Amino acid sequence: MAHRLAETAEILKEFSVLFFAMRRVAALPWTAVEEELQNSRSPGFISELLAQTCLHPLCQKFPPSVRYRRLFLSELIKRQEAAGCDPLDELYDALAEVVGAEESSESFRSYRLPCGAFVSLLENAALISVGTTGLVTWEAALYLAEWALDHPQLFAGRTVLELGSGVGMSGISICRSCSPRRFVFSDCHPAVLQKLRQNVRLNGLGSDSRPAVRVDQLDWTTATGEELRAIGADAVVAADVVFDPDLTGSLVQLLSKLLQRPSTEAQPLVLICSTIRNPQTYGGFKLQLGKPLCPARGAMKLTVTSRRVFVHRKGGPRPRGDERTGASRLSLRQSDSHRAAEGLQVTNKGFLHKHV
């Protein structure tokens, strides 16, 4: 009996995690629901499932999109009717509420952290809007967040700068779980900065929080070494910033400025996580990392190199994933993509160049 209750609790938890991350409805573990309904023939399980999803307080505060909730509830009704269970009024009431609701161009995705708390983000429905791709969470941000949560000691007590923060997934996760001393989010597009500041506040972060955080506008093409040194970052992270070949040169130059430190100072930890959509673009970025850069007169000669810290092979099993559903151990990744992803640690080797 206890084992059965534990299994039911795990199913409910899993549905909650995937529902709030807006995982594709067809990819949810519906087989487990069918088995529960066949065993109980009671609407009690459906009531509990609703309580963990559409009727949960988080859904009232940070609701997934109207369309997503409608698809979810319609599928749940279909499974309930197929199992021959008695109709449940609260299920049909929940559907009626979203059937007549107005669609919005933005909605919330919430990602569950290991501690049980959620990172909730307001994101756009469209992948590209107002001329930018920065108003949604991309897969590499979720990979970086998971890797950081597995290695919190690398960020504890540090000042962390994030490049291309987007809507804030990676940075907020690090702030909530890795104990940095300060965290500086950065981006360039005005609409992205506005949404980023909103998400930072929604998750209880600000200049007076622990860690203290701020959001900076940072243009890779114009940022000076003096401006970057003033940030005082001893760790730098970025996710899904290698997607446009026209920007990779500016990114490498920016990284070189961040790594140009006197020999008496420790280099910052620099981690770049990328989803490999176009191998040619990503390969070009890694190639530029290996080329000696032309310093200003009197500056240190710099060769930036990289070391792979993790890799997810295209079409391969998800690292640390749950075998039955493919859900992440840390309950963050919601994407159904099977693209390859890679995390690099970028360092300055001075006159040395080591191909990785």
UniProtKB/TrEMBL annotation:
GO terms for biological process: methylation. Keywords: Methyltransferase, S-adenosyl-L-methionine, Transferase. This is Eukaryotic elongation factor 2 lysine methyltransferase. PANTHER family: HEPATOCELLULAR CARCINOMA-ASSOCIATED ANTIGEN, PROTEIN-LYSINE N-METHYLTRANSFERASE EEF2KMT. Coiled coil: none annotated. Residues 10-98 form the FAM86 N-terminal domain. Residues 312-339 are annotated as: Disordered. GO terms for molecular function: methyltransferase activity. It comes from Oryzias latipes (Japanese rice fish). Belongs to the class I-like SAM-binding methyltransferase superfamily. EEF2KMT family. Pfam families: FAM86, Methyltransf_16. The keyword Hydrolase does not apply.
